[in-house]
Recover the amino acids of this structure.
């Protein structure tokens, strides 16, 4: 393992300066800080934190994503399970960090990670956080972003990522609704934009357009990705004229909430209304009726992200690693022919 003394020698500074950089001392100029941090990342230096033979991998929530909020989602819980399974047979610990709270004023992400004893990071952010993901990659810290895709050029070219491609399965799902006679098909998406929900919307629009159907913006509804949005969605859909006969809900929690509210209101699913949902884990197995869904394996996403982060840690010269996983369509009891 590299030492502060080696870093100081390669950076051409004193050991005291390296220590000050790692501790975000205000009297270190930016040029010297960047020179030291470049060597820190190249040498995969890790500050002593706990047992020296244990590697700390960080699951890092940045900017608009709050760890306390996101960890309530089935997707994030399944991510953790997948990461834990990948790390279970290896000598790794998992730390959960909230960057909005953990990064000190004037501190780079690399400095924060080293202060917290993190050797590699799995990044969880949104579309508004792309510049921060690119910044972490540009610093040279071993990191991989979950559930976003990045360009092959410019500032994003260095970003590693793992994501699922839900467009094809979403396209198949909406096409199936159309084949059952549905023409007034709504879609409900997260009110915050991200690549995944954009792909699902594009698939919805493509399926309608190729069948000669117009994308009616009154049927495009954005709500927070949470269970309590489901009842709100059902009431909004039932108030539309003419009535929609089906909806594609691109968030699992909202879909579960919608199914429950339909049951509460006495709306028969699917004889009166069809619901095509999305599932990150196994929620579709526990609904009545069983929910038809576009499915992704979030545990697999978490395991793949942990694997990529650890590969980048082991090989400082590795190019960006980018994995795209498949999704699939499961046809279950929540969709049926258009009501007569």
């Amino acid at each position: 393992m590299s030492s502060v003394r080696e870093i100081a020698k390669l950076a051409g500074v004193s050991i005291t300066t390296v220590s000050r950089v790692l501790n975000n001392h205000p009297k270190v100029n930016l040029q010297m800080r960047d020179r030291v941090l470049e060597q820190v990342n190249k040498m995969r230096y890790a500050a002593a934190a706990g047992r020296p033979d244990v590697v700390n991998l960080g699951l890092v929530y940045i900017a608009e994503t709050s760890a306390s909020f996101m960890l309530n989602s089935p997707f994030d819980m399944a991510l953790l399970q997948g990461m834990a399974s990948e790390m279970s047979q290896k000598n790794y610990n998992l730390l959960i960090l909230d960057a909005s709270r953990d990064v000190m004023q004037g501190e780079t992400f690399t400095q924060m990670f080293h202060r917290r004893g993190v050797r590699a990071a799995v990044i969880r952010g949104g579309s508004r956080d792309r510049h921060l993901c690119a910044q972490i990659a540009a610093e040279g810290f071993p990191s991989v972003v979950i559930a976003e895709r990045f360009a092959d050029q410019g500032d994003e070219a260095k970003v590693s990522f793992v994501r699922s491609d839900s467009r094809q399965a979403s396209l198949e799902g909406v096409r199936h609704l159309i084949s059952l006679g549905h023409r007034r098909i709504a879609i409900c998406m997260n009110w915050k934009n991200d690549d995944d929900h954009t792909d699902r919307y594009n698939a919805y629009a493509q399926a309608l357009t190729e069948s000669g159907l117009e994308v009616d913006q009154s049927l495009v509804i954005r709500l927070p990705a949470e269970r309590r949005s489901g009842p709100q969605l059902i009431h909004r859909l039932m108030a539309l004229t003419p009535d929609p006969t089906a909806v594609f809900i691109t968030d699992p929690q909202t879909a579960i909430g919608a199914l429950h509210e339909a049951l509460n209101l006495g709306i028969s699913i699917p004889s009166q209304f069809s619901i095509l949902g999305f599932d990150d884990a196994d929620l579709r197995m526990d609904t009545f009726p069983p929910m038809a869904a576009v499915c992704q394996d979030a545990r697999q996403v978490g395991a793949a992200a942990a694997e990529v982060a650890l590969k980048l840690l082991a090989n400082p010269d590795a190019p960006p690693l980018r994995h795209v996983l498949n999704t699939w369509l499961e046809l279950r009891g929540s969709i049926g022919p258009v009501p007569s």
